[in-house]
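Quick entry between incubations.
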Amino acid sequence: MRRFIVIGHKAATAADFKLDDLAGGAGRLDILLRCINSAFFLSHDLRKDVEVILVLLGPPGPVRTVRLVGSELRYLNPDERSTGALIRNALMKDTRSEERSTPGIYVSSRTFQDVLGLLGETELVYLKEDGEDIRSAEVSDNVTFVLSDHMDLTPDEESLLLQYRPKVLKLGPISYHADHCITIVHNELDRR
Amino acid sequence: MRRFIVIGHKAATAADFKLDDLAGGAGRLDILLRCINSAFFLSHDLRKDVEVILVLLGPPGPVRTVRLVGSELRYLNPDERSTGALIRNALMKDTRSEERSTPGIYVSSRTFQDVLGLLGETELVYLKEDGEDIRSAEVSDNVTFVLSDHMDLTPDEESLLLQYRPKVLKLGPISYHADHCITIVHNELDRR
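Done. Structure below.
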């Protein structure tokens, strides 16, 4: 299982945003939607053994977490708008504990701390520019990568994550968008 | 210079499509828009030394070609919808020879054959599942990659391309979406 946790620092936590304004009014939700695309889509196939957890921290709050499970997903298309509609559907559910919104998509009010605490057996990887090169690193088959949207992790988020002693890895000499990072990670692990 | 030619076999050649329907009515233009994103965007930066050439072959015809030049681009945002609007603007220009539509975006009625003929000095690479692994291949700094949308190159397109004796390279053991291919290519070349 490859799992990707992506923090959306400004991403909408209510379903009142417009699908025409995913980059603006929805708080850069467009980035998270492209992360979903990169995590699941292969040419003419969907990756089943992948999970994506989006932690949405934008207004109006409180935090909402959307979890997508590759083995159960249906109705997922590669484009931003239709995926945005699925996330908006999920946000319509006003629930604290995790509930299913559509096949393979679950919503809750779990915090980043909750999400980390609930991971169970998995290797944890923090993708960061000053890490070890992923190409020379051992990576478990059961691995969880932590990424951020257009902003870095806050000092609080980072210190929380570091308590779990993640492996710190980098993907190359340049800093990439989160969705591009997911594509590069997949390619590296597909080769092993 | 890294250049990416992407063939959109069904992609709209007129500006009458809706930005709400980029994956449907615009003939999978969403794929080409994500290719633009992958080609140009870095975290908080734009790649200047990149060019993208989209060859649009869908209805109503005839062919339209849109060329994006990294060193001149402005007003480019990462999301599909706003990039779709730029391409739609370009398609509003009814021109045979190449004309600028917005900064860094040019439109013409060049065919794939025209595009190949006009490349000048560049190494040509055909990304294909049965090629040599890119990680062990020499690749020039001045290189042009040819990709296709959700469909393979037609036999005619492939035989045209092969006349130019491209290097045939693969990116791994699995077949990826065109935009993911561009991300993987960039990462590999960024490392050299």
